[in-house]
Design goal:
- The complex is a heterodimer of chains A (129) and B (544).
- Helix content of chain A is 46%, strand content 18%.
- Chain A is an alpha/beta fold.
- Chain A has one domain: Rossmann fold.
- In chain A, strands 2-1-3-4-5 form a five-stranded parallel beta sheet, sandwiched between helices.
- The two termini of chain A are 12 Å apart.
- Chain B is α/β, with parallel strands linked by helices.
- Chain B has a single domain, classed as Methylmalonyl-CoA mutase (TIM Barrel), CATH 3.20.20.240.
- Chain B is 48% helix and 8% strand.
- Chain B is built from 21 helices and eleven strands.
- The longest helix of chain B is centred in the last third of the chain and has 24 residues.
- The chains are: A alpha/beta (129), B alpha/beta (544).
- The interface between A and B is large, with 34 and 42 residues.
Chain lengths: 129, 544
């Protein structure tokens, strides 16, 4: 079955170079990708993830607000009883990785992460899901 | 017909500059001429300005070392400004946080987690007063990197300066105010393109008539390049936007030579050294040629492309961050050899977070080393005449020129309409994303090497970012704002906002005086932007 991924920008961060490149890489790897567009709320991301029946949610945050916004997305998904794994890419300092993992994030990708790793990680996750 | 050789014309112009009688030598004592080249070739200070806009370039005036700063609350950023000035910075430049850039107040739920994080939080004129406290705004020039709410923040700035006794005519500086590239690359827009352009028009008309030292537009390719464009796309899209604003001001009834000399540009200084130098040279040549021959400008200052450069944020690596010093130095040198009027150098720690004060100081010192130790400032366009650089300049000119023609065709002879159509149909973003993706694939395949990322990788752990955020910036700004809301005259706020709304309903009215009145009544950025949104609507791009 084809892996379906929602890639999302949450909050006020308009930097979309990364998410555009990731979306295209995932599509090139044969996945179906839904991109929310910019400036989404945690609730709208969760709602779209459920409505689109995706296997994985990928959040892209470069503003540094990940510790505030990511847990809100996870809460919103739980509120909809959706057990969809969430991965986060962006400027995530090492010291924040554990905090995000504790909040329920399945994987994080920092600056310079390899596209092949991202694709492989998401592929593996959708199989497990 | 002027039959003098180019060199004679240049010589005459050169002798009229402050550099006229200067002599320069190399470190070892050999004489250095102010410019080199054949007598009938191109010269700096002469059309089409490929070799620079001034006949003496840095011999007559160094570039402005303008360091971009902003974080936390206004008093915190004000302290950083004073540190920059004390360290020899010759201009200041304000970075705003994301809520401010999107016209959202610090106490709005949408601002959660973002207040004071990527720049300074600014809600009311009181924040503006604290931001510039102790800085003589009639002396040091200020730059404001803001776009969607540019008119609002500019109105607050002018009103604050006047309330502190500095007449608007004495204010010198730059408002970025380049909304078109927001739809193309940076995505900090609020209203749709056309009502946003009305705000650009109002600020340009206001500054052109009342603020002779002010640059109301900084047409910015920086963000286009950071979003992933090629060098040719950076030049083409930026100049296209510049021409669009020229047409906008013309529609507003301004004579081209009254405002074009006040337009400025902002380019990236990326890592491909010679391509960057060629990029600035070709941008100057294209701008001069189009302004004279297509738009009919007669004042030579309208032909001269003045630009600020910033080293490339995307070239900085989070891995082995100390290597970023070398990248920034090389990029800054490209901007200088390319003839920049103003320069910001990134700090080595910025791949992780806003720069620490120490890192920002080293970045400024990097410029000072180039300016005062290397001797590169003695010769205008020292790479001019290099077969490689001249050939690259011509190549970029052809590539960018072709994109400009394509946009002009899309607009049926209007660059303004061409840009708007290409925003609507996603043309800009498609071009930029294609280029970004091609770059990333090349990195992935190891065809393009990045030291510390896909080559020369070592096991040294990535250092923790030197985060200078004090952690409770959100709460302190929300408290500052709550105090203003408590103490201001709410009737005056309501009245001035209503006047602003009425003014916005008439597209012929210039909104600057209404915005200044609301600023003085202590209306917030968010309140003014919400009032305008009631008339203009909000721009939304859906899922895809």
């Amino acid at each position: 079955m084809t892996t379906r991924v929602l890639v999302a920008k949450v909050g006020l961060d308009g930097h979309d170079r990364g998410i555009n490149v990731i979306a295209r890489s995932l599509r090139d790897a044969g996945m179906e990708v839904v991109y929310t567009g910019l400036f989404q709320t945690p609730e709208s991301v969760a709602r779209t993830a459920v409505d689109e029946d995706v296997d994985v949610v990928g959040l892209s945050i470069l503003s540094g607000a990940h510790l505030t916004l990511v847990p809100l997305v996870i809460d919103a998904l739980r509120g909809l009883d959706a057990a969809i794994p969430v991965v986060v890419g962006g400027i995530i300092p090492q010291e924040d990785v554990a905090t995000l993992r504790d909040a329920g994030v399945a994987a994080t990708f920092g600056p310079g992460a390899s596209m092949d790793d991202i694709v492989a990680t998401i592929e593996a996750m959708s199989g497990a899901h | 017909m002027d039959h003098r050789s180019s060199r004679m014309k240049w010589q005459e112009a050169y002798e009229g500059t402050l550099a006229g009688a200067t002599h320069a030598t190399t470190q070892s004592g050999a004489p250095i001429e102010p410019v080199y080249g054949p007598d009938d070739g191109e010269f700096p200070g002469l059309f089409p300005y490929t070799r620079g806009i001034h006949p003496a370039m840095y011999r007559s005036k160094l570039w402005t070392m303008r360091m971009f700063a902003g974080f936390g609350t206004a008093p915190e950023t004000n302290r950083r400004f004073h540190e920059i000035i004390d360290a020899g910075g010759t201009g200041i430049s304000t970075a705003y946080d994301m809520p401010t850039l999107l016209g959202i107040d610090s106490d709005d739920v949408r601002a959660l987690g973002e207040v004071g994080r990527c720049g300074v939080a600014l809600d009311t004129i009181d924040d503006v007063a604290d931001l510039y406290a102790g800085i003589d705004l009639g002396d040091i020039t200020t730059s404001m990197t803001i776009n969607a709410p540019a008119a609002v923040v500019f109105a607050m700035f002018v009103a604050n300066a006047e309330d502190h006794g500095v007449d608007r005519a004495r204010l010198g500086g730059t408002l970025q105010n380049d909304i078109l590239k927001e739809y193309q690359a940076q995505h900090e827009y609020v209203f749709a393109p056309r009502p946003s352009l009305r705000l650009v028009r109002d600020t340009v008309v206001f500054a052109t008539r009342e603020m002779p030292r002010w640059h109301p537009l900084s047409v910015s390719g920086y963000h286009i390049r950071e979003a992933g464009s090629t060098a040719a796309q950076e030049v083409a899209f930026t100049l296209a936007n510049g021409f669009a604003y020229v047409e906008l001001a013309r529609h507003a009834g301004l004579a081209i030579d009254s405002y074009a000399p006040k337009m400025s540009f902002f380019f990236n200084a990326h890592i491909d050294f010679f391509e960057e130098v060629a990029k600035y040279r070709c941008a100057r040549r294209l701008w001069a040629t189009w302004m004279r021959d297509f738009y009919g400008a007669r004042d030579e200052r309208s032909w001269q492309l003045r630009f600020h450069a910033q080293t490339a944020g995307v070239s900085l690596t989070a891995q082995q961050p100390d290597n970023n010093h070398a990248r920034t130095a090389v990029e800054a040198l490209a901007a200088v050899l390319g003839g920049a009027q103003s320069l910001h150098t990134n700090a080595f720690d910025e791949a992780w977070s806003l720069p620490s004060a120490d890192a920002a100081r080293v970045a400024l010192r990097t410029q000072q080393v180039i300016a005062f130790e290397t001797n590169v400032t003695q010769v205008a366009d020292p790479l001019g005449g290099s077969w490689f650089v001249e050939s690259l300049t011509d190549q970029l000119q052809r590539d960018a020129g072709q994109l400009l023609e394509e946009l002009m065709e899309l607009g049926h002879g209007s660059m303004l309409e061409g840009c708007l159509a290409a925003i609507d149909n996603g043309w800009f973003e498609a071009h930029i994303t294609d280029a970004a993706y091609a770059h990333q694939r090349a990195v992935q395949a190891g065809e393009r090497l990045i030291v510390g990322v896909n080559s020369f990788v070592d096991d040294s752990p990535a250092p923790a970012p030197a985060n200078q955020m004090s952690g409770d910036g959100d709460a302190r700004q929300v408290e500052r704002l709550a105090k203003v809301r408590r103490e201001r005259d709410s009737d005056a706020v309501a009245r001035t906002l209503l006047e602003l709304r009425d003014a916005a309903l008439d597209p012929e009215v210039n909104l600057m005086s209404s915005l200044m009145a609301a600023s003085r009544a202590r209306a917030t950025v968010g309140e003014m932007m919400t009032t305008l949104a009631e008339v203009f609507g909000r721009y939304q791009v859906g899922a895809r």
